[in-house]
Design goal:
There is one protein chain. Helix content is 68%, strand content 2%. By secondary structure, the protein is mainly alpha-helical. A hairpin with a 2-residue loop joins strand 1 and strand 2. The protein is globular and about 65 Å long.
């Protein structure tokens, strides 16, 4: 009995966590290469293409370089805090992998908790402490400014980030990520009734990860490299690893909360969790493939944003968070509460679908041909 309990509650969850950890770290390494190559393609240049076929071995060369580089520690830094800085953002991100279901349970989740979403938010919000600590402990003015900016940015965008999820919770009625996914399979993706919440969540998760156009804590044009200016070798690599791991966590969250997770079903018709589980190992692999496809889409959107948008000024960053995102999130909660109270959640799906249709029509409609301005000679001749 003791061995069975040990296998069920310790060894088997540990094996699943290690499997998820290895897969996620492989994705992190691959995304480093993908981002550099994709940015090069968008910016009409080559990107890494010397090491291996199309530069694929660059993901092996970079860790070797970080391991062999000299680790320089500033003589005036606060040594303990300086060493802890890169670790603090990394550890909570790794712990979150235990709670995220990457496919149909119980195969692809290490520990299913009925308040998993609350634990994920609590753990991911602690990552900023490492950035603040590293920026302060470096005893560098640029690093300190980067740490202060990160603290202000986290305070500003953690609020709309959390408020955007409230509408989803009001509709689904659970903090269990598996139940949220199952609700969407039996009804429709939360993207439709919560289109405003999706937009707020998506913008806030970019700000949470300090990604362009919200990369103010490490603005190269102003702060050299921001909070990690004084970090080198593996300590810098830990900061980069934490950033990419947090990007994957947020991409998983937006997939689970708004895009139906590993399912492809509407009103219970299609690939629901029950149907995937009934298919055995094949169903689990299909569910995992669906989940990873949705997740990787948002990873590519991160890169697309970096190549497209210029960096905000810091006052613009604060104005967007406090004057627009938070009021919009509160308004979405009020509207969702009214629809839930009168029992018309289904109407929200149609309103969201119509909104998406209007946005798509505006984006893809045929552009009006530009009218060529007349020259001064043509105007004089016409008169």
């Amino acid at each position: 009995m003791t061995q069975a309990l040990l296998m069920r509650y310790l060894l088997w969850p540990l094996v699943k966590f290690l499997g998820a950890f290895i897969v996620v770290q492989a994705i992190v390494a691959a995304m480093n290469w993908v981002e550099r190559r994709l940015l090069g393609l968008i910016q009409a240049r080559l990107g890494p293409n010397r090491v291996g076929w199309h530069g694929l071995l660059q993901i092996v060369a970079d860790p070797i370089k970080f391991l062999l580089k000299e680790d320089i520690v500033p003589s005036s830094s606060e040594k303990v805090a300086y060493f802890l800085g890169p670790m603090l953002p990394l550890i909570p991100t790794f712990m979150v992998y235990c709670l995220i279901p990457f496919g149909p349970p119980p195969m692809f989740i290490a520990a299913r908790v009925n308040v998993a979403l609350l634990l994920v938010l609590a753990l991911t919000s602690t990552g900023v402490y490492g950035i603040i600590l590293g920026g302060w402990a470096s005893n560098n003015k640029y690093s300190l400014m980067g740490g202060l900016r990160s603290a202000a940015q986290m305070v500003s965008y953690e609020v709309p980030f959390g408020l955007s999820i409230v509408g989803v919770l009001m509709i689904c009625g659970s903090l269990d990520l598996v139940r949220i996914v199952d609700y969407q399979a039996n009804n429709a993706w939360n993207l439709f009734p919560q289109i405003v919440a999706f937009f707020i969540f998506f913008v806030s998760m970019n700000a949470e990860n300090n990604r362009t156009p919200f990369d103010l804590p490490e603005a190269e044009s102003e702060l050299v490299a921001g909070y990690h200016t004084e970090y080198s070798a593996m300590k810098f690599a830990f900061f980069m690893l934490a950033e990419y791991s947090a990007m994957i966590v947020n991409s998983c969250l937006v997939t689970l909360l708004f895009l139906g997770g590993w399912t492809m079903a509407i009103d219970g018709k299609g690939l629901t969790t029950q149907q995937l589980v009934s298919m055995g190992v094949l169903g689990g692999i299909i569910g995992l493939a669906i989940f990873l496809t949705k997740m990787m889409f948002f990873m590519f959107v991160y890169i697309w944003f970096r190549a497209t948008f210029p960096r905000f000024r810091f006052d613009q960053l604060m104005d967007l968070g406090w004057k627009w995102m938070i009021p919009l999130a509160l308004g979405n909660i009020v509207v969702t509460g009214v629809f839930v109270l009168i029992g018309q959640e289904r109407l929200m799906y149609w309103i969201g679908l119509a909104t998406l249709g209007a946005i798509g029509f505006h984006i893809f409609r045929k552009p009006v041909p530009a009218v060529k301005a007349k020259t001064a000679h043509e105007v004089a001749h016409a008169s």
